[in-house]
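Good morning N.,

You mentioned wanting to compare the apo and holo forms, so I went ahead and generated the holo version with magnesium ion. This is what I fed in:
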Amino acid sequence: MRPPELTPLFASAEVLKGVGPRVIALLKKALRLPPGVLLPRVIDMLWHLPTGVIDRRAEPTVAAALPGTIATLKVRVLKHKGPPRGNTKAPYKVATEDETGRLDLVFFRVERSFVERQLPVGEERYVSGRVERYGETLQMAHPDYIVAPDNRGDLPLLEPVYPLTGGLSGKVLLKAERQALERVPPMQEWQDAAWLKQRGWPSFAEALKRLHHPEDAADVSPGSAPLQRLAYDELLANQLALAMVRESFKAQRGRPVHGDGRLRAKIIDALPFALTNSQKTALREIEADISAPRRMLRLLQGDVGSGKTVVALLAMAVAVEAGAQSALMAPTEVLARQHMETIAPLAEKAGIRVGLLTGREKGRVRDDILARLDAGDIDILIGTHALFQADVVFHDLAFAVIDEQHRFGVHQRLALQTKGGGGGANMLVMTATPIPRTLLMTHYGDLEVSKLTEKPAGRKPIVTKQIANGLMEKLIARIKAQLAEGAQVYWVCPLIESSDVSDLAAAEERHAHLTQVLGEGVGLLHGGMNATAKDATMAAFADGNLKVLVATTVIEVGVNVPNANIMVIEHAERFGLAQLHQLRGRVGRGSRESFCMLLYAEPLTRTAQERLAMMEDTEDGFLIAEKDLELRGGGEVLGARQSGEAEFRVAGGAGFSELLSAAHDDARMILSADPHLTTERGEALRRLLYVFECDEAIRLFRAA
Ligand code: ADP
Ligand code: MG
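and this is what came out, ligand included:
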């Protein structure tokens, strides 16, 4: 149970004054909510941090005010001059002055009564906004703030600037943020006093205050003490939670499973290729784990196209040989279906019964699958996270495979490990993002790792080239020639800002353009399509009926169309390295020579230049991952930026990797000295875990 004093932080943001259903809907767009949280809460407001400040501290006299700058002026209202009747275009002006000069306040399309109320003739007011020169007069159009001398305190002298969304006013948000801040309860310090002192970090509450209510512009700048403090809090919570889950995982007895190899032999027989040595080694390692008395938790790392699916199938077959069940979970519906298509024919040859369960299986179909699963009539269940819903009951789950792990946030990761927990199922986690060693240690600790280092035989290198946007038509002409020779092309349009609408619009526009130039056979795939339409489009591309597939990043993971040999990525400069590498991995799977064309818009930042050059230079996923870590910081490499979900609220940006390893060591030290978090600091640390919503870890921990 969450301690009651934290309740105010987890209330809906609607408790804040000025936040009604309309604002909530806007906040939902502007804030990054953690997975599973549908409506913004007070705590989400607090994690919505300003990106800068507007400095209103300059308080010149009218004569000294500099045109073009933001200033706060104390003036006396002289007279109102409304626009002539019937002329709504002319501004409403209010003449004001101080001892040194005149200042006109100018309003367009404003209600007279509003201005009259705000600026009564003869009274003094503070006005704050941008001062401009208009001919001979000094003016301020639509002051940001107008306050009476008595209410001067309402005027934010350093006004934090928040990321907004269309329709959400900065003022409404600021007011809500101020109230959110007031709901932060006093809390016992959970960080080590000496460490705080050494770093010069403020307390948790003070850090939030300095960010949302800055008294110094530096507080809001990247790397500031308050930001570092909160990032460290988050990293420590994360490290503690992972360590606790790991402990509880290790404490569980395993479910040793012994297969006799008969099903695997049949599957291998049915494969049109021989396994690579890496695949064989990985399988041996997995088999040893599954048959050991300790519960298995192993990571299978393999670059895109290294052949993880077959390894997963053969590993799952071990459990089936022993009369138990296996599950394979993919992060998206498209991928789950693709796994099903790959696995079903092979499984059939071996007499293994396979079922599919995603969000789309509903009603009778779903009931039927659940009944067969419960009865043990399904040997391998493939699906999305629908697999882990409460009413999905396995007859005897001995082995679970989780594909493309990096798409799941920490919280989902925790929930999954718990789900497998009851039955003590062995777990294999597969990731296509080769995670650098350092990061692996900090995020998974003592997890065992198998690596697929070889590419399947017959793979050709992918020629990668960066191309300036201006050369796009040339590129399209070359693609046209390639298409005539049987090539197939992925054309990826990037996410544009935060709005999916403009995203889609960009993809649609490109689709129309390519159709015009290349003729029929250009398909469009985007996140807004329903699952059936997506499948149909993917199938048409896989069958070769579509030659070009224009897509938003929904094709990012796992999709396998061996004949596709050209990948075009628009605005490649907006993608991270890992993501570019993932996307590129969609081609180079067949016998044709493959290309990856990175279109970019100038000017390129230094980092973007480095990223694109790196992509041209190497196809080694491990090298790329190291570089990615260096360029972006640990949070984002593992984190959900790629999937659009927030994994870290504060520590997501670059520049926190140093803190990550400190937090890792700190968590270890804390748990070895106080394994049950029962000391005074331990109690405080529990609060930290709740603040960062690692409740699952705490629950597990209690049970252990
Ligand atoms: P990923 O590791 O990215 O999930 P997949 O499992 O989708 O890769 O495999 C990519 C392609 O490589 C598939 O078409 C698969 O059939 C093929 N493949 C897997 N193993 C081998 C192998 N040993 N030799 C040749 N092709 C293979
Ligand atoms: Mg895969």
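The first strand starts at residue 52 and ends at 55.

Happy to go through it together on a call whenever suits you.

Best,
F.
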